[in-house]
Amino acid sequence: MYRIIRQIKKEFKLLWTDKFNLILAIIIPPVVILLFGSMLNAIPPTPQPVPCVVISYDSNTIINPNNYTESRINNYTIPYVNAVNKSELLKLEYFYNASEEIYAMETARMQLISGKIKVIISIPTDFSEFIIWGLPALIDCIPDSSDVQHIQDNLNAVYDSVKIFINENNLTPQFIIQGYEEFAIPEGYSLRFNYNATLLLSFIAFGVSMVLTILVVVQEKPVARLLLTPVKRTEILLSKYFAYMLVLILQIILLIISTMVCGLYLVGSLFDFFLALYIVGFSGLSMGLFISSISKTKTEANQLFFAFMIVILLLSGIFIPIDAMPIYLQVFAYILPLSHGDPMIKSVVTKGKSVFGFDFYVLLGISFLFLIISFIIFKKRRYEV
Amino acid sequence: MVEVNNLNVIFGKVHIVHDVSFTVNEGEVIGLFGISGAGKTTIIRVLTCQIDKKNWNGNVRVTGLSPANKKNHPKILSNIGYVPQLELLNLYFELSPLVNVEVFTSTYGISKKEARRIAKELFEILDIPMDTWKKRVKHMSGGEKKRLSMAIGLIHNPNVLFLDEPTTGVDASKRYDILSYLKKLNQKLKTTMFIITHDLEAALICDKTAILREGKLLEFDTPQKLILSLPSEGLVARFTIENLNEKLIDMINKFEPVRKVLRVGNEVIEILMDDFEQNLPNLIQFLINKGIKIKSMSRDIASFRRFFQIRIQEEEEKEKTLN
Predict the structure, then answer these.
(1) Is A176 helix (H, G, I), strand (E, B) or coil?
(2) Sign of the alpha-carbon dihedral angle for B105, A209, B89, B137
(3) Which residue(s) pair with B17 in the sheet?
(4) pLDDT-wise least confident of A35-49, A268-282, B129-143, B157-171
(5) On chain B, which terminus has fewer CB atoms closer than 10 Å, C or N?
(6) Do residue B164 and residue A385 have CB atoms under 8 angstroms apart?
(7) How many Å separate Cα A192 from the centre of its chain?
(8) Closest CA in chain B for residue A222
(9) SS3 of A96, please?
């Protein structure tokens, strides 16, 4: 018994010699729970309003079928827009009158691609006329189907506006909402695979390149000896970057091939798809080399990797949408690579959006920031043979 | 080739090296001896540009260039080679010896073809078997790794080669092999060598030896001259005495011409004294008169090991008296 107690004491003494690891092991789990808890608690009980655009093609004139004369009627577009505004489930971002803005639908589609809105509500030409005649009125609804989990939420929000419209205008509840799914996966392609592949791709591109690089500096023992040759520290680190950037090219090409073989429906160009995955992978590579540069031991690097991954997973909008997080967490969430990587890949794959957007430049910025910090740390790091 | 004048190394409040001065000429093999904490490695770190100028002062020149000026570092590093104590700090174990050579030669701007030519030459001198050249280093034996590490240090034909504990961790039979390889390389390539070591046998191949203690340079000369500086030019009388103990040693010390009695074995002592030839018969008579039973006796010249032992003991005694 005495021997066991002494051995336990020894283990604690050994643990105490590596305080950093001990702190990580003790602090990380409660921090994760606190983060998760504060995120979940901050989510409002009612869902976030769905940003939308209303385009009206409605005409306030009708042609009398008996004598072919034109007469003016009550226009129901404005009362409907008022109902949209009153709905807590919708947030009207733009309203276009198609008779004044002929490219209204194209503009709205661009907004749908960019992700600014989630649904286009189109009011057809005979909307008011049908209501006056007591016929079932029709509303065209174009939800963003790239986000498969929220299609129903978007439609429900539109139904809510219709309900308000009926109540406020004492109309008979005869309405048809005709849905056209924008960015939907065509027949013959696996829906499940396509809707999940983009998230998986961003994880793989980011995670694998990070795992590949977290030990490259910390485990290379002859670095100190190499520094006793005319080689410069920047040259050593730069060569690591270039080597792993080349590996990343191969990795991304193989990823693309394998996803295509599995039946990925790619709306965007292959170049955009490659670049989107590459920049996500590059951010993982920069973070991996950053971890490797600041770590003194392999264990420390592994612990830091674990800590980074947990925070990234929690705050990248996978579990909880970033917009639903408290502001202080949103600020932090938006500087994490996967917060930009997943939406960027999704919009390239499902909407055909160009890769060169806000998310791409943020990822580029994050990657270079970590790259610069890694160089500074590596330059200041003390190496002695 | 290497000049060190009044070198002091200070880290914070800790004064590690005190006023060390020495000069090393081209092609010489220098042994830096001292017990742990003597400052050997610190001096070498200054010479190899590893310590920032803010931590040291003095006039130091390596191949004519001062490490105090950062601009000189690339040139100095091109002119020197370094063989660390542990091979894992010098070799990529997952790569082959030839690829290791290419990694290091590329840092000096040597072409792949030239690197292979130099490697072949060095591998042959160092008896690195040809069948290992393309295998992973991790599959080589300890001795082969050690020799490969030396080859890497010499791969760019440096003017000065620094070797940190080249014989540490090598079994006794191989230690002499390593030392003879070093001497062979020194003679063939005319490379100036600095050997930092605890292994006093290394003095056998040194042209000059430096003895350091607590950051101070106690001696710097050829091993022969150092031995000659001992009483009676280093002549020692070696006695095997029955039931040898401290009391008997104290008794022997009372014989006036005796300068030093060193216990070198269970029953063996070595005695240094003034006017050796004249006093040796008197010493034997003294021992017989005191009833000390002599099993055997011989005369010899003191080794560098004895000199080192005596010099360090003297310093310790001096320090004790001062305290």
Answers:
(1) strand
(2) negative
(3) B9
(4) A35-49
(5) C
(6) yes
(7) 18
(8) B89
(9) strand
The CATH superfamily label for domain A50-168 reads abc type-2 transporter like domain (3.40.1710.10)
Nearest to A225 among B74, B89, B109 (CB): B89
Measured CA to CA, the distance from residue B109 to residue B159 in angstroms comes to 17
Alpha-carbon span B157 to A150, nearest angstrom: 70
> Tokens in use for B104?
């290091």
Residue B318 C-beta-side C-alpha neighbours within 13 Å: 8
> Within an 8 Å CB–CB cutoff, is residue B55 touching chain A?
no
Chain A CB contacts of B88 under 8 Å are 221-222
Angle between helices A298-315 and A19-42 (to 10 degrees): 0
Quote the CA–CA distance of B108 and B76 in Å, as a whole number: 12
Nearest CA of chain B to the CA of A251: how many Å? Answer: 23
**Residue A226 to chain B, least CA–CA distance (Å):** 7
Residue B296 bridge partners (DSSP): B240
Q: What are the percentages of helix, strand and coil residues in chain A, rounded to 5? A: 60, 10, 30
Strand A70-72, strand B216-221: pairing: unpaired
CA-CA distances (angstroms) from residue A312 to A215, A287, A336, A341, B182? 19, 11, 6, 11, 54
Report ipTM (2 d.p.): 0.82
For chain A, the structural domain boundaries read: 2-42+190-380, 50-168
User: Which residue in the set B50, B108, B164 is minimally distant from A229, CB to CB?
Assistant: B108
Is this structure's pTM higher than 0.90? no
State the CB neighbour count (10 A cutoff) for residue A122. Answer: 23
Residue B160 at interface with chain A, using a CB cutoff of 8 Å: no
> Which of A222, A224, A229 is closest, CB to CB, to B91?
A222
Q: How far is A210 from chain B (nearest CA, A)?
A: 22
pLDDT tens digit string along A155-209?
889 989 988 988 888 777 566 777 676 777 777 788 778 878 888 889 899 998 9
CB contact under 8 A, B89 and A228: no
Residue whose structure tokens are 């091979």: B87
